[in-house]
Design a protein that fits this description.
There is one protein chain. This protein is α+β, with helices and mostly antiparallel strands and 421 residues long. The protein is built from ten helices and 14 strands. It has one domain. Strands 1, 2, 5, 6, 7, 8, 9, 10, 11 and 12 form a ten-stranded mixed β-sheet that branches. Strands 3-4 form a two-stranded antiparallel ribbon. It has a two-stranded antiparallel ribbon with strand order 13-14. Strand 9 and strand 10 form a beta hairpin. Helix 4 packs parallel to helix 9, helix 6 packs antiparallel against helix 7 and helix 7 packs across helix 10. The longest helix is centred in the last third of the chain and has 24 residues. The model has no long low-confidence stretch (mean pLDDT 89). Belongs to the mitochondrion-specific ribosomal protein mL37 family. It holds the Pfam family PDCD9. It comes from Thrips palmi (Melon thrips).
């Protein structure tokens, strides 16, 4: 039982209602601006009357039903004979998203290329380790950690898939996407290479990102087009010198894929252009291709028959993409119909998925791809890929870099400084 007595208790709702009844009929006072306008003798109009007159003066617009609506500004592109790139004769088109079924052997047969020795040329192998920068391994480890762990970008990553449980849906993962990891890793590696090379690299080298190349070829009367993107293309103001004579590979036979044809698993298309494309203008001083870095993304590169990409197919992609850059440069210099090149074109290639690196060199001697050609294109490559690390991620909540391989950057530096004084 409450012993005290509440005094002066007020019902706020009733007070509000009482106050509202007292002041709801009060007229709003005139504003200072209105009083000042009246003192000046200027005419005034009530806003409600003004809006009423405006509504009376509005004339409704009558639409003619016979008028047809205008055509849209952007029409959807119809993939039919009216398309500007349509050609009645199909073309075998190789792009960045597909690989050859038979891998390296098929790419050699398709591109009239052979290997004359195992591994890279001795000139390149002897240059490994001749140049270095202070605290080289520490700096490379730092850039690897930054590219794979410390970068602040967080995007939705591709869906994970389990071959043993194809219907299982994993939770979506967030992190650094593969293309950004590649761009950060290669860009910072090239910065270290510029630092090691000194002022000579500024005058000799130029870096081009997303360099698109297109080469139109003919193989046994069948038109073949290679659409290629060099993710990072290092160009030079002087061409690389040939590593061997153009006739060094004439005695090496091409692979035999019987009963398969060289065009197996290459899709045919009716929509393509006939012009070759090289990403650098002919008159630019640093227009010669030197080293091309290609990114391999398992979520984008697919096998035509939905099988996992094999090591041989990974190596063949290195050859095809390097050939596209060199062939497009040759067609820019000597014309689209050139066969025997006056001077060989040499290009170095680095193919990576941000973890494993594949190093190769191509010497383009001819664009005559028929098996009866007198000359062969020569291809060198490491027989196996090299891992930059085994694990670079958060392990139990702590960032870790495991099994760092210093030889990878040494080879990148050797490729980049090849030809520098």
């Amino acid at each position: 039982m409450r012993l005290t007595q509440v005094l002066g208790k007020i019902n706020r709702y009733r007070v509000f209602q009482l106050r509202w009844e007292q002041i709801k009929r009060r007229k709003a006072p005139e504003s200072r601006e209105l009083i000042h306008v009246k003192k000046l003798g200027l005419p005034t109009v009530d806003s409600s009357e003004f809006l009423q007159k405006v509504e009376e003066e509005i004339v409704p617009v009558e639409f003619n039903d016979d008028v047809k609506p205008g055509e849209p500004l952007f029409k959807p592109v119809q993939l039919d004979e009216s398309h500007p790139l349509y050609k009645p004769d199909p073309c075998l088109c190789i792009d960045d998203s597909n690989v050859l079924l038979e891998g390296l052997e098929q790419s050699k047969l398709l591109l009239n290329s052979v290997q004359i020795q195992e591994g890279l040329p001795e000139e390149l192998e002897d240059n490994i380790g001749t140049r270095a920068i202070p605290f080289q391994d520490t700096r490379v480890k730092r850039l690897v950690m930054y590219s794979n762990v410390y970068d602040a970008m967080q995007v939705v990553l591709p869906k994970r898939k389990d071959p043993e449980r194809p219907a299982w849906n994993f939770a979506r993962d967030y992190g650094i996407d593969a293309k950004r990891k590649f761009r950060l890793t290669i860009t910072q590696m090239l910065q270290l290479c510029d630092f090691a090379a000194g002022n000579a690299s500024l005058a000799e080298r130029s870096h081009i990102h997303d360099a698109y190349c297109c080469a139109n070829l003919v193989k046994e009367g069948i038109q073949v087009q290679i659409n290629n993107r060099a993710d990072v293309l290092v160009s030079s103001n002087s061409p690389m010198s040939p590593l061997t004579s153009s006739t060094a590979g004439n005695s090496v036979p091409l692979p035999d894929l019987h009963p398969l044809n060289f065009a197996v698993s290459i899709p045919k298309q009716h929509f393509y252009h006939n012009e070759s494309i090289y990403p650098v203008a002919k008159g630019f001083t640093k227009s010669h291709p030197h080293t091309a870095f290609f990114h391999y993304d398992p979520s984008e590169v697919k096998n035509l028959y939905e099988e996992p990409v094999t090591e041989s197919q990974f190596y063949s992609r290195t050859l095809v993409k390097a050939f596209a850059v060199a062939a497009s440069r040759a067609q820019q210099l000597y014309g689209d119909n050139v066969k025997k090149l006056p001077e060989p074109i040499t290009i170095q290639a680095v193919h990576t998925d941000n973890k494993r690196f594949h190093f190769a060199v191509l010497q383009l001697n001819t664009l005559d791809l028929d098996g009866t050609a007198q000359e062969r294109n020569i291809f060198w490559m490491l027989p196996q890929t090299m891992d930059l690390f085994s694990e670079c991620a958060y392990v139990k909540g702590r960032p870790e870099l495991q099994d760092y391989n210093p030889e990878v950057f040494q080879r990148v530096l050797s490729f980049y400084c090849n030809g520098l004084p």
